[in-house]
Amino acid sequence: MNFTLLFLLLAGSFTSCQKDLLEFRQDDIRISIEQGSEWLHDFPLFMGIKKKNPPQIAIWMEDIEGNYISTLYVSHKVAHNDWQMAKGNDRKEALPVWTHLVKERASVDGISGATPRGSFDVNLNLKDQKGPFVVKVEVNHSTDFNIYYPENAKEGESNYSGGKQGSGQPALVYVAVVEPSRGCNRFEAVLAGHSSPDGSTGKIYKDMAGITTAKDIIKRIEITVQ
Predict the structure, then answer these.
(1) What is the pTM of this model?
(2) Contact 108, 98 (CB under 8 A)
(3) Is 188 exposed, middle or buried (0-12, 13-18, 19+ CB in 10 A)?
(4) Residue of 161, 208, 199, 221 whose CA lies nearest to 39
(5) What does the buried/exposed string (b/e) look like for 95-133 if buried means 16 or more CB atoms within 10 Å of the residue's CB?
(6) What residues contact residue 67 under an 8 Å CB cut-off, 6+ apart?
(7) In Å, what is the CA distance from 144 to each residue of 16, 39, 115, 167?
(8) What are the beta bridge partners of residue 218?
(9) What gap in Å lies between CA 12 and CA 55, rounded to an integer?
C-alpha cells in the first residue's frame, strides 16, 4: 500500500482546548489521542525530586490480516534507545509489541519525537487505501509500579518489568479496525490487552488482572476518516 504521511501535529493539553488542527483534504485520516488522568506520571530523579513525564507511545498500521504496514508515530526515546538514568537498561519492556515488529530503528527518524504533554493528533493521507486496515497504539510509563508489578520483582518472575527503572505496569495496546468503505467515518480504538511485562515477547496478553492506573493514561482514541 502506498500512502503519504502528511504531518505529525503535536498539540497542547486537551484540557486547555487549544488543539491546532490541520485543514483536512478528502480521504485524510486523523488519529486523536485524548489524555487520561494518568497521562503525566511522577518519575523519580534524585533526593526525593520527581519530574512529571508523559508516556512513551507508538502508533502503527497493520492490514486486516495482522501484517505490519508502517509506523505513524513513536516516542524518540524508544525509537533511538535514548534513556536517561537507565544505567545500561535498554528498556526493552517499554513498548515491546512495537519493538518486536520494527527491528530497523533508522527508518523511524522522520516520525519520532518527544511525546506531547497533553492530547495530540496524528494526521495522514491514505488515498490509495481501499480496504479496511488496523490502527494500533501502545502506551507505557516508566516506574509505574503497583502492588501487582512492584519495583522489587525479580528477573524471571512473571511480574518483573525491568527493575528499579523499569515499567512497573506493562504497556497497554489499543486497537481499532478502520473500514472507510463501510459508510462510517469515526472509529474508536478499544483496549485489547497488555504487552509482555519484561519485554521478552511481542505478544498481546488479554488478562488485565493487576492493571490499575495504567488504564487511565489514555482516555480515548478516535480515528476519523475525512
Answers:
(1) 0.85
(2) no
(3) exposed
(4) 221
(5) bbbbbbbbeeeeebeebbeebbebbbbbbbbbeebeeeb
(6) none
(7) 26, 11, 17, 6
(8) 35
(9) 15
C-alpha grid cell, residue 137: 497504539
| The amino acid at 88 | G
Residue type for position 196:
S
For the chain, the structural domain boundaries read: 4-13+21-225
Q: Are 139 and 172 in contact (CB under 8 A)?
A: yes
Q: What length is written for the chain?
A: 226
- CA nearest to 139, candidates 219, 209, 82: 219
User: Which residues contact residue 17 at a Cβ distance below 8 angstroms, ignoring those fewer than 6 apart?
Assistant: none
Query: Do residues 9 and 21 touch, judged by C-beta distance below 8 A?
Result: yes
Instruction: Give residue 152's identity as a one-letter amino acid code.
Output: N
CA–CA dist 83, 91 (Å, integer) = 8
Q: Name beta bridge partners: 122.
A: 8, 31
Query: DSSP for 21-76?
Result: PPPPPTTEEEEEEEE-TTSSEEEE-STT-EEEEPPEEEEEEEETTS-EEEEEEEEH
Q: What are the tens digits of pLDDT across the range 74-132?
A: 999 998 888 765 555 578 999 999 999 987 655 676 788 899 999 999 988 876 666 79
State pLDDT tens for residues 187-222: 999 999 999 999 999 999 999 999 999 999 999 999
